[in-house]
């Protein structure tokens, strides 16, 4: 039976839902994507995910009887052990949804639910940039900042499955207000949202910059636009990237000093800025981190891109299936 064992991973995002099928060696068989339908009821969203999975099984010619387990990654607050997703930002009708029970009743296979960033981390740990590493941290720099933390070969969950909210470390007690209620949260500076705010503040002081001209022409400010201006030598873009990189370094120093990781993996949309922010970040880290943990820490880009969540979800599903079938 193991030769035909198939595992599925679902990654539910605010805009799109993704599902992939893998064999028992985690070789991907196929994937399918569709809008998340975030404004619909929880039942409609779950039916949409089930239809996405069913469609992929048909498209790949996979016998549904060979599907052994399913893992699902979703953002927001949850009870991992109970398999209940409590709350998803931007999903207004989603409250206390028994995701695992719903899918196990539908599919009659083991199902695992976890936070989307932890699923990304499991993916990178199993098949990507953290493979073979026992102490690693994945940072996703997107509209916010998420993190998955692996310490001594185990994923860190915390008392309420909330461990990893590194984006809400305060790096400035008199800084920008955050939606969480805190002041000066790291993600208000190093996320895509934070980068745009820093850019707007810089443009206000330098109305003749290339970025100001582009904005005056009606172009919306994006991280990609700031990168383009940087590459054209725009002084404001350089100031913004240097400042953002330094703020990134501030948080990374704390992470290195506190967790002593062997690998820090940078993913998410902001990772596309690459050396534009990583060079000033590394400069700050080299100047301020404790020497011993700094020497052991390697900062690398994520390897799996937006597939990581599906890979990690399949990994978790396979682990639950294997545990259930252990003699």
Automatic annotation (TrEMBL):
PROSITE patterns: ROK (PS01125)
Alphabetical keyword list: Kinase, Transferase
Pfam families reported for this sequence: ROK
Cited Gene3D superfamilies: 3.30.420.40
GO molecular function, one term: kinase activity
InterPro entries hit by this protein: ATPase_NBD (IPR043129), ROK (IPR000600), ROK_cs (IPR049874)
SUPFAM superfamilies given in the database record: Actin-like ATPase domain (SSF53067)
Family assignment from sequence similarity: Belongs to the ROK (NagC/XylR) family.
Name of protein: Glucokinase
């Amino acid at each position: 039976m193991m030769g035909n064992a198939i595992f599925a991973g679902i990654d539910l995002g605010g805009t799109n839902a993704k599902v992939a099928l893998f064999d028992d060696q985690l070789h991907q068989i196929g994937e399918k994507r569709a809008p998340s339908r975030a404004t619909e009821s929880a039942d409609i969203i779950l039916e949409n995910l089930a239809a996405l999975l069913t469609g992929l099984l048909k498209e790949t010619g996979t016998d549904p009887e060979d599907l052994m387990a399913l893992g699902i990654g979703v953002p927001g607050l949850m009870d991992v052990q109970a398999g209940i997703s409590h709350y998803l930002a931007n999903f207004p009708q989603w409250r206390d949804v028994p995701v695992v029970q719903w899918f196990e009743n539908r599919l009659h296979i083991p199902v695992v639910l976890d936070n989307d960033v932890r699923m990304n981390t499991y993916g990178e740990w199993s098949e990507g940039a953290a493979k073979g590493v026992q102490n690693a941290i994945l940072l996703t720099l997107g509209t916010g900042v998420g993190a998955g933390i692996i310490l001594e070969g185990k994923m860190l969950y915390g008392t309420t499955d909330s461990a990893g909210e590194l984006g809400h470390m305060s790096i400035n007690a008199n800084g920008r207000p955050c939606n969480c209620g805190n002041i000066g949260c790291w993600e208000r500076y190093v996320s895509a949202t934070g980068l745009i705010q820093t850019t707007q503040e810089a443009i206000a002081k330098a109305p003749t910059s290339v970025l100001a001209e582009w904005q005056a022409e009606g172009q919306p400010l994006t991280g990609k636009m700031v990168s383009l201006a940087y590459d054209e030598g725009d002084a404001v873009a350089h100031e913004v990237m240097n400042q953002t990189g330094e703020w990134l370094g501030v948080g990374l120093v704390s992470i290195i000093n506190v967790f002593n990781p062997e690998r820090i993996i940078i993913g998410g949309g902001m990772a596309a800025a690459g050396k534009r922010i990583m060079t000033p970040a590394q400069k700050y880290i080299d100047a301020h981190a404790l020497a011993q943990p700094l020497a052991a820490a390697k900062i690398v880009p994520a390897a799996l891109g937006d597939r990581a969540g599906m890979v990690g979800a399949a990994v978790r599903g396979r682990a639950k299936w294997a545990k259930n079938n252990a003699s």
